[in-house]
Design goal:
There is one protein chain. This protein folds into 2 domains: 109 residues, Rossmann fold (3-Layer(aba) Sandwich); 115 residues, no CATH class. Helices cover 50% and strands 7% of the residues. It has 14 helices and 7 strands. A hairpin with a 4-residue loop joins strand 6 and strand 7. It is globular, with a radius of gyration of 21 Å. The two termini are 14 Å apart.
């Protein structure tokens, strides 16, 4: 059971340790965007149900690593994998399987379980996860291309913030497909970061390489490459258009998020993530969640 406040800041946790150094299982997360996912994930754990624990927001991955040596209390930290090449192998560090925590909400077992519970029988028969995921990938293709270039080319591409790229500057919300005019303007902004222009011959070669590589990606590879937030945002719009019986009452994005979180245990990767977190928080209990 979590303490009265759902989460606290890193400074508050450090102060609490000074006032009362008694050990309390403490889970650190990167930022406020990850808190809701983590809180809903760990509520699936029977072991934590009767245990007092703390969830602490560190602001960012870089803040955690910069201040890690200051932390005198035992803790476990959950970090988004992002495009990190060298993962910290410390025992108390747990990385997501995919790019970010939102990636788990786009996993087939989670989405299909939510559809089975929410959709009318007629809609349920017509829902096809493979077709939906293909539509999501088509929508975020420009971002996927940039992500691939960032991973493969490194150099100045590493400075392009894939998670900070706005997909709605490219994607037409009425069709959920990239808009050619918007995409050209968007690309101009991205390329200015890496010293290229739209008519640069190197760009065509790089984009051709990216498209050939992306054509071979399965859903797991795409979830590792592309920010989960982008995929989730497009999936929400997809459901609003094509699976309206799941979105009764003009369901908000947050309510849709909560619905999906309720089915996280349908996915083997989410179950593994929870087991690893519980194992780090309660090292004496290593069996189950």
């Amino acid at each position: 059971m979590i303490m009265d406040q759902e989460w606290i800041t890193l400074d508050e946790r450090m102060t609490l340790h000074v006032l009362d150094p008694a050990p309390i299982p403490t889970l650190l997360v990167e930022g406020k965007d990850d808190v809701e996912f983590v809180l809903r994930l760990i509520k699936h754990s029977e072991q934590l149900m009767n245990t007092e624990y703390l969830v602490v927001v560190t602001e960012s991955k870089s803040v955690y690593f910069a201040r890690r040596d200051e932390l005198e209390f035992a803790h476990c930290v959950l970090l988004d994998r992002n495009h990190d090449v060298a993962l910290d192998d410390s025992e108390n560090v747990v990385y997501t399987h995919f790019y970010s925590v939102e990636s788990y909400l786009v996993r087939e077992p989670v989405v299909e379980a939510a559809v089975r519970r929410l959709a009318r029988p007629g809609d349920l028969r017509h829902f096809n996860y493979t077709a939906m995921f293909a539509a999501l990938v088509a929508a975020i293709r420009p971002v996927a291309r940039v992500c691939w270039l960032k991973v493969k080319c490194r150099g100045p591409w590493e400075d392009v913030p894939c998670e900070g790229l706005s997909i709605w500057q490219v994607v037409d919300q009425s069709t959920l497909l990239p808009n050619c005019v918007r995409e050209e303007h968007w690309w101009t902004g991205v390329l200015s970061r890496v010293g290229l222009t739209m008519d640069d011959p190197e760009l065509k070669s790089l984009c051709d390489q990216a498209e050939k590589a992306l054509a071979k990606f399965d859903d797991q590879a795409m979830l590792r490459l592309v920010p989960g937030k982008h995929l989730f945002d497009v999936m929400y719009e997809y459901f609003r258009r094509y699976m309206q019986s799941c979105m009764t009452g003009g369901k908000s994005k947050r309510a849709f998020y909560v619905d999906l979180c309720g089915h996280l245990m349908e996915d083997k990767f989410a179950r593994d993530l929870l087991a690893r977190l519980v194992g780090r928080l309660l090292p004496q209990n290593t069996f189950g969640c």
